[in-house]
Give the backbone structure.
Amino acid sequence: MDTNQYLEMFLEESKEHLQACNEQLLELEKNPDDLAIVNEIFRAAHTLKGMSATMGYEDIANLTHKMENVLDAIRNSKIRVTPEILDVVFESSDALEEMVIDIEQGGTGKKDVEKLVTMLNQIEAGKSPLVTVEEPVVTANVYDESEGLVYDDFEQTVISQSIEQGFNAFEIKVILRDDCLLKAARVFMVFEILEKTGEVVKTYPTVERLENEEFDSQFTVVVVTKDDAEDLKAKVQKVSELESTEVQSVQFPSASSSNSETAVTMEETTLPTVAKSEKTEASAKPEAAKNKRTGNSHSANKTIRVNIDRLDVLMNLFEELVIDRGRLQSIATELQNAELNETTERMTRISGDLQNIILNMRMVPVETVFNRFPKMVRQLARDLDKKINLEIIGAETELDRTVIDEIGDPLVHLIRNALDHGVESPAQRIAAGKPEEGTVTLRAYHSGNHVFIELEDDGAGVNRQRVLNKAIERGIVSPDVADTLTDKQVAELILSSGFSTAEKLTDVSGRGVGLDVVKSTIESLGGHISIDSKEGQGSLFQVQLPLTLSIISVMLVQLQKEIFAVPLSSIIETAIIHNADILNAHNQRVIDFRGKIVPLVDLREIFDTGLPEELEELKSVVIVRKGESLAALIVDSFIGQQEIVLKSLGNYLQSVFAISGATILGNGQVALIVDCNALIK
């Protein structure tokens, strides 16, 4: 059966089950005697095992199988949960995630997990996972003369289903003569014969060991074929330098209901290539794909998975529709036709509703990013020898998928910074009169057309003097200016390029990667980051992000013959000023805006559109903001507000100063979009 058609479904479901495992493992660490949690982990592992076996990813299936054994022993009270056991299970979960990611990236999902399997087997046997064993632990591929080959779940079901469909399954034991010189060549010849008669399901030793001649004089091959035993034996014996050949039907040991070797159900398995059928293709689908965990079957039928690429295509088509809508509005205004105006207004309302639907389809809960952090915080806290409790609030808050994809790494940096530099050690916290366990809170919420993500800790806060000393040393601020900065401005100095107060670089603190990388990434998304900190009490990092990056509201302004767009999210207000209102401070033109000195920037000079021939008495300005910083942008005139489609300038023009993109207006003219952050910076 061609399993490629189910690959995307397998990856999505596998990530969900692994996430469920991680979440429940964290809960189990807090409540080691809660068997209900163990049952949840067991169910997730069991489903993942079946799905992996279905898709033919045996390494994942086998490792999950061993995890399942340990979990089964825990829920049957054969062993108790200890930190050492949880560490091994967490490590196994990490290995499974790596294998799934490898498959997602086009790999085979294979990984050397022999050490983990050994430790899991030790745990199941009631031994400490830290004890080194000299004898190799028996695994599914080890040959035992008294019992024969041991088959894993996937192999058992493949063979059983093949027999049901009229195939024969044989174990062919081949012994080479003592004087055989080229053992690998004889193995190859045997394989060539068997593969012409049927499908090889299993070998002992492994194919790699056979190819490298890492065996004595005998090997066993399991095949599914239409031939009978005598015909098969006769064909194999034609190979020279064979001492003997034994052919016998495959016999499975009886399964125990409580034993972890129990055969998996039909929903968790598939057949080899030689045993395709319509019936098995239907049964081969992963269990989770057929039975959604969203409740009853009625609700499951109302949910479908859509590839994000299809939504991108849909969004691009809608963006073209928005451009044409603007063109129609422009024509309707010129012609002053009542019927055309009415139709255009109706089209505007409908397309607005359509826009909301498409944007909502692209929305993803920030939970998909937040879910990775509890496990990360657990490990980092142990590495730093700190006690830290992570609280997550508002994980259901939704963001555009394109923003979600980019925000993960900046948040990882912020959390690492909070744990390494923010929260103190237990001894330091007790000395400061705080609980020995620090609290880090990650929250998300909507506000207007933005999503805010906040990271708050109750640690030591930003040391004002230490930050100022480092900023002066690095030339970021001058000593004169340093004394005039507010605590908030001092805190935000740590976002400057090349700034770090770490006395030594560690894996946790980011190996020299500063918070300026976080700042630039967030600003590239049209967002903003700010910091509030109180020394000795903690810090609050606030990230402001747009709901979407594709369609934005702007103020269109005229600069001579050119039209520019200023994002409304950056605008505080527009105003008309007199020449007499313009002042000079430090060789910079400024204005007094509501009691605050604001730098004045003439966009006509910045973009070289040309200045008016006559001296103006009145000037039109747009007051824009980036965090606490303001600027007044001089323009020729205001055109009005409009929703526009943001288009990238492409790689060739990516370094154009103060321009973040372009759009096509209703009259077909291209308008450049002003990057207010770059201007203020």
Remarks:
- The mean pLDDT is 80.
- Residues 486 and 558 are 37 Å apart (CA to CA).
- The longest strand covers residues 437-447.
